[in-house]
Design brief:
Elements lengths: L3 E3 L1 H8 L3 H12 L6 E3 H7 L4 H11 L3 E3 L4 H14 L4 H10 L4 E4 L2 H8 L6 E4 L1
Parallel strand pairs: 1-4, 2-3, 4-5
Helix pairs in contact: 1-3, 1-4, 5-6, 5-7, 6-7
């Protein structure tokens, strides 16, 4: 299976304590797509520093592959994607670049991520 990468919307959605999230995580496990990759820059958008609100996200993060380093080539590739798409944040661009080649991004922001992915190497964007 190709890599699965979460942006802040995807991470936050999977952290919601509801049946839909539980079923989606189970499906991702069964299909071999778990654990997803979460670049540390996504944590900037997903965490507030308030234990009460961060608890659910932190529970999900414990089972994810958190990527702590943004290499220079990855940052440069994200910059190229952002310039070509002419939209999306730096974090969005890094998420899409992390999914290259052939990965899938789970997001709540389908428009910006799809625009970036249209210039990426075989990256699929899916709404959660």
């Amino acid at each position: 299976m190709t890599s699965l990468v979460l942006d802040s919307g995807g991470l936050s959605r999977l952290a919601e304590p509801d049946l839909r999230s539980i079923r989606l995580i189970d499906t991702l496990h069964q299909t071999g797509a778990w654990p997803p990759i979460v670049p540390t820059v996504v944590l900037t958008e997903s965490l507030s520093g308030r234990p009460r609100t961060d608890a659910a996200v932190n529970r999900v993060l414990k089972s994810c592959a958190v990527v702590e380093e943004v290499s220079e080539p990855l940052a440069r590739r994200a910059g190229v994607l952002r310039a070509l798409a002419r939209r999306g944040s730096a974090v969005d661009a890094l998420v899409v670049a992390t999914a290259e080649p052939g990965g899938t991004v789970l997001t709540g922001d389908i428009d910006d991520l799809s625009a970036l992915a249209s210039y990426a190497d075989n990256v699929t964007v899916a709404r959660v």
